[in-house]
Amino acid sequence: RGGQWLQEEDWGYCWEDSGEVWDARDQATCNERGGQWLQEEDWGYCWEDSGEVWDARDEATCNERDGIWESADPQDPQNSDGWCMSEWDEANYEPAGEYNELTGCWIEAYEDGSVYESCDDGSGSWFDPLTGETQTWSPATYDAESGCTTQTYNGFTETWCEDGTSYWEDEEGGVNISSYDEERGCWTDTYADGSSSVYCEDGFSSYTDANGNTETWAAPEINVDPATGCTIEVYDDWTNTWCPNGDSSWEDADGTRGSYNAQTGCSETFYPDGGQDTWCEDGSGSYTNPDGETDSWGATEYDSETGCYTQVYSDGSSTWCDDGTSIWTDEFGNSSTYTYDEELGCGTEVFDDGAISTWCEDGSGTWIDPEGNVETWTAPVITIDEATGCTTEEYDTGEIWTWCEDGTTTFTDIDGNTDSWTPPQEEIREDGAIVLTYDDGTVEIINPDGSLRLTWPDGTWFEEEFMEDGSLVQRYSDGSTYVEFADGTSKYTDPYGQTSRTISIGEGDSLGWVTQYDDGSTYTEYENGRASYTDPSGFSVEIIVDPETGVRTETSSDGTVIREAPDGSFSVIYPDGTRDSGVYNPDGDLVMTYADGSSSIVREDGSETFTDPYGITTIVTYDEEGRRTEISSDGWTSTTSPDGSSIRVTYPDGYVENTVISSDGSYVTTGSDGSSIRYDAETQQTTFADPSGSIEVLRVDQDGNEVLTNSNGETIEFNPLANTSSFIDAEGNTQISERTENGGYLITLEDGTVLELDPTGKPLNSDTAITETDSTLSIDWEANSISGNAVGNVEWDKETNTLSSWTLEDNTFRKLDIDDDGSMTMEVDGETFKYDPATGVTGVNDIFYELGETIINTSGAGSATISEDGMTFTVDYDGVSATAVTGATGVTVEIDGEIYEFSY
Asked: Where are the domains of the chain?
């Protein structure tokens, strides 16, 4: 914006030098502009004497100018500070504007639409055209008996008394009191909620909350260094030093320290993590991050001929001029020039490649690309519904935003999909706890001590509490807990009672954390990206990142090696020698091939083509507005808005999902059958709700495991490091899987049975034989049957995407072909059936749709109907009727008047 950043210890501000006397920031500049520099202990200012009464800086000059001198401290005759005031001549004073004899008020209207009213009785008002609000005040009434004056502002009463006490009403009608104790030199503010604060002249202060808990800050210990003359103030958590030459320094409790050198005009701040920044009054400065990387910029230079300021940075330069023009040039010489038209209320940025961007305050704008193609958009149509308190903005793209005074927000995208957010209902209990109830049934309780409890609609919950020793405790309804101790270490207990402890190791570039699990596994990660994991069996994963190339390599003890480069290229080599790879071709396209036979191409323009192992092809394209479209050969389609905030997916059977993504990464997905998925970016929890009302909640615990709980009381936990899962049902029965040293798996069932699988998931020590080549996958097995052992075979032809099976017992042969559109053709001993998901099975049944319902007619005497929401299934056969309705806890079936309940 063309300003100069001035750093003041731990804060700063943006400032523009007008070139006038009062904008001089040091004595030399002040003298150049003909001003007088006044030094006030550790600060100063430049001043120009206009010769008027108010510019007198001492009592003698004030008297010469017929002014009235007001001492800053009447009790201290040695204190010469004060100010000069003109004598009030009420007889000759006449306000500006027009006088209304009927109301006895002066009214002054300004060009910007604001109106000021001042009445003879002391009342008045002020109208602000920017906000549309009017401020009002009543006459001030003095009570001689109490010595107090009372006045009402905007409906709230304020009272101030001669003894220094004052009273004021807050928005809830509560009365607050402020008083001064001359003997102690302390001010006390007592608030309507029962809390209070004390501030004393010696620096002592305290705060008492509504529950009577008090926190105090002692008065500082003040010393003067006789050698330097510097004053040192030592507070509970802060130290300040001020010196006569203008130098100063400070240090806070966490080790952050800073200093100001009055001779150089530069401030330096040093942070505990090793970072450092420098800010100087000439505009120059630098910043060094904890890794030692430094970014610096030069002093601000002013060219009086052009009226422009210029500042050079490490990655370019910035120029801003008195006429409002600003220019940015990057390190490669590319530049853009910005101008603003105050009359039109529009800003225009011209790029050196010929592109032009214009944005106006009313919301309209224009974009011209380097080729001269023009895109324009108009200002939104804004309507305000005073009855509902809602404001609606309609854009020419078809998007509609509505937000209401109660906090409700609604958004409709260009495809007509609507998403709304309703703020929670708030209740404050007698104990001070705040209860927030959301529209989906979620309840959040925030207690005065900072602890909280979240309860979701399915009854699962989360609690968080800070203990007296400074540790943080988090508890979950699945039985897991997480404790973060004051020293930075932590302990996590999962739903099965297994614990892990995390401690920090090393420092600087070698800083890292080690997590030790009860089962003997260990996970170590470092700031530089290096990590390793070892489980009790000896299976391990090692991750390293090359600091020069940025290539990340992950090596597992089973022989799997994964390499990922910053440009997006990658390779995965599996233990059997097969591989996935992604490389760039001469055209700049990323070409990816996978071990399962699938492939993908990502082009420079963002378009993609993906072919899965079964031959289904998906094409991704982007239109001129940036809208992303995916079309699959089996009937799937997906559309993503240009800003990525909304996604619409249509399934081959007509089922539709709409997803709306918030700016914080949270999203809501709603299905045409009434199902929904909600992800909260803050808690990293995902809630799944099916049309029957059954709910599942997925979260990521402190160890990085994915924990899924459902309405039935079951819990599933997935460990991404070991690629294993554990399951616990509502009765506490468990099924646990673990890795072996060679990368295989051991699965322990609830009855103690142990299953052993190889790294690909194939069972070991079984009668099943699996054979795979480049073109086929074949499975042979022996199984018990009524007549004895039966030998079976299933073979998948990868090239033709054909599945065939053969059983020796009855010598039957079946062949299955899957087409690109998702239909299947099955041959059973010479007889052929074709199944189409949209129309049914040839010669067996027909599927058609009517008023949202799915109707299936069979070749016999029966038919079936599925409701639009998928919740009700009705069958009619030979005069018998049956209806099944899916509910939250189970399925209700009615057959010719008889009702049966089946719980999940």
From this structure: 140-217, 381-419, 767-838, 840-904
